[in-house]
Amino acid sequence: MIPPRKSRTIRIRDLALGGSAPIAIQSMAATRTRDLDATLRQIRILESAGADLIRIAVDSKEDVAALAELRKQTRALLSVDLQESYRLAELVAPHVDKLRYNPGHLHHHEKHKSVQEKVAYLVGIAKLHGIALRIGINAGSIAPEYQARFGEDHVGAIVACAVDHCRMVDELGFTNYLVSIKDSDPRLVIEANTRFAEARPDVPLHLGVTEAGMPPEGILKTRIAFEQLLSRGIGDTLRVSLTLPFDEKGKEIEVGRELVADIEAGRFRSVPPNFFHGLNIISCPSCSRVENEKFIELAARVKQLTGYAKQHDLTIAIMGCRVNGPGETDDADLGLWCGPTSVNLKKGEESLGNYSYEAILPRLLAELDKLIAAEAN
User: What is the DSSP code (8-state) at residue 27?
Assistant: First the structure.
């Protein structure tokens, strides 16, 4: 249920991200970076849980010194969140694999410099040290100029800001970057990321519902956003942001992997936009009216053997009895209703004959191939 992604592939040290690379799962140390023991413990917990990338916040030179020491004690891929202190980039860059800056915070310092100058500085640092860059936009800290331009249209402001910053970075000849657009409301996360992906499908996206809260509600909010976005082919890396005791931070990684696995397998709690597109197989749940248990095996075989047609908007209905079978297959492109010793094959309301349980599958596939060929013509 996760279609091919259109984004380009970037690299965070030896981690490929975007394009056909696996969706990377990451988290963030919850402790104060300068608390070396506590932060190193967070890194170990996240590493043990299988984190692909670990983010650490730095907003002072004391934090930078702690980061340098942490780098000596771990080979984990580290990303630094510069928060409002973008000028620390040159100090932290030698110790990390990715820098994250928030466009909404660039106006706080060195107000005599333009945003373009500040972005050029960050890109220059990333180029010098061979590290990746994340343009991380949070709906709670929209840059003032975009707030002024878009007023109450928060999604429009966020998307425009992201597109503009991508353009700035592109013009500097740098491509090893990605974007994140986050909010605590999964609906805004879905809309903003969808609109950005339409504008810049080539740019890898980091997904997350920020401040999602405690489980299980936080997991459900995150699931809603991830189901709707990943099922559109949007999202290359993600974080599940949960309110957890520090020693349980590994749960963010575990939940992230579970959500991706569920979406890949088609296990949804919300309906993805492409759920009703492609091959639709309808089969009844079985009941006391079923006259041959081979019906259950037949339904499984139909699903298995028709996988090659999954992109076609066709419906196959498999009904297990002669009470509901005839009528409930009428609306399907192809219908099977099963009796005690044979199966009736239908094309819409038209009967195509009666076949043994052993002979029905080749006949069904032949009719399916005719429908696919007709679509092509």
Answer: E
- Nearest 5°: CA angle at 56, between 255 and 32? 105
Model confidence pLDDT, tens digit, residues 346-370: 999 999 999 999 999 999 999 999 9
Both tokens of 361, joined, read: 């599958």
Determine the residue type at 48.
S
Measured in residues, the chain has a length of: 377
**Domain-embedded: residue 37:** yes
Pull the structure tokens for residue 182: 């986050």
CB 79 within 8 A of CB 56: yes
Q: What is the CATH number of the domain that holds 327?
A: 3.30.413.10
Query: Does residue 275 fall inside a structural domain?
Result: no
Q: How many CA atoms lie within 13 A of 20 on its CB side?
A: 0
Q: What is the pLDDT of residues 185-209, one digit of tens each?
A: 899 999 999 999 999 999 999 999 9
- Are 338 and 321 within 8 A, CB to CB? yes
How many domains does the structure of the chain reveal?
2
Pair (153, 295) in one structural domain = no
Q: Looking at the domain assignment, is residue 119 inside a domain?
A: yes
**334 & 212 share domain:** no
pTM, rounded to two decimals: 0.81
